[in-house]
Amino acid sequence: MDKIIKDPSAMDGKDSSNLRGDPITNDRYFCKDFMAKEWEHMWTKVWLLAGREVQIKEPGDYLVHDLMKESVIIVRQKDGSIRGFYNSCAHRGQRLVECNSSQDSFRCPYHDWQYGLNGEVIGCPDEDDYPQGSPVGKIKLVEVRVDTWDGFIFYTMNDEAPELLEYLDPITEIYKNHNFKDQIRAQWVRVELDVNWKFFCDNFNESYHTRFVHPQVPSVIDQDHFTSRYEIFPKGHARIIQMGRPSLRDRIKEDEVHPFKMILEDWGIDVGKYPDYETLSEQGWIDLKKAKRKLYKEKGYHHYENLTDEELTESPFQFVFPNIAMGVQADGCILLNWFPHPTDPEKCFFDLWDMGYPIGGSAKGIGKTGRDTDQEFTSTSAGIGKKDRDTDQEFISRTKVNPVKLQEVELDFRDYDNGKGVEDLWDHVVYQDWKLTDGARLGLRSKGYQEPYLAAQETRVRYFHETLHDYLNSKPPR
């Protein structure tokens, strides 16, 4: 508990002696009783990501967030504040709205009770027929707590939960320079997948799988565990920090275009001066920091203004308990948010957000290699110059992979259809994770499943489950 890395609240994320060693039983991945306990003791207690402030800019704009058996309306008030209410009519429980929209008031489709933006009943038929008194001005929708952090909207069903910023601590301080509110969500895809939601908690709390499942990544993000920093924080949050340079154990063939060389060249660095691969990786990474610091203004990368040199070239991957992962880089963020199916513990929903900054105040986006993409934005985790093991297809430079306009988008809910419904994402690292779900679901049910045999770099996986256990046992998370 007392091992300090960088943040005073951080523990060494590779030291399992900091943890209890709770068993990770497989019933959690398919048992309905376990699912019910999670709902009662965890989902209704934590802060949950609902969306972004940009979705509800004007009074009357609202979004609907559904989670298992509950639905919540989050609406912009006339004074500019944001409030949230259960999506349940105070008359007889009818759902009021189904999807995001904007209106001056809410009308129940059943008996036409009308509510103001503040949740108060402002009208109903036969108002004088209530012996206990008119509900107008008297009855209100039940409110949920809502708060924001840097453009993200959160809510909790727990009146006794800590304040949002306390719950997220120290995440808000760690990423204070990134200004997520200025980023544009240029892609928002949702799919339903046949696996328990916790598979992704396990998956995104380790990078042990990366060089095997995502073979394109080590050419630009160092995957060696001995060069990475691992941190676990209070309340179940955790992260890994990796350097934005090639892994020394992973080499691209000499006849293949190296994406890291492209990055260096884009910042005016002569890659011919590096005598060998090690120097390219290690000294090139240092030179890249200097070049970005020197040239960012003239290139229009004004979002670099407040970033430290480390933030310009490091690649942290942040897990926010219980169901958010953020790949945070200098030029954008990939945010992943997954949540359980309402009734089936072996299904879940998965949201992919790709977010990026405009360049120089224009509609230009920034591709992953750092190249200007001429008013287009490329997924921050697309393929980058290596072959896919299943399709044998070449990945091309990320600036040319499935670009989309850099503008805020609405939800695109896809039919996954064994990957056929997301063909445009086949070169995305997230799709490579999605392809593992069938095997995980089946294998986790097997009688051959035993207690996981975890490497030190997988300690964050155990920490997630121990935090979940704390909630299920009605204990405050450490």
From TrEMBL:
Residues 49-155 form the Rieske domain. Its cofactor is Fe cation. Residues 366-389 are annotated as: Disordered. PROSITE patterns: RIESKE. The keyword Iron-sulfur applies. The keyword Transcription regulation does not apply. GO terms for molecular function: 2 iron, 2 sulfur cluster binding; iron ion binding; oxidoreductase activity. Keywords: 2Fe-2S, Iron, Iron-sulfur, Metal-binding, Oxidoreductase. This is Rieske domain-containing protein. It comes from marine metagenome.
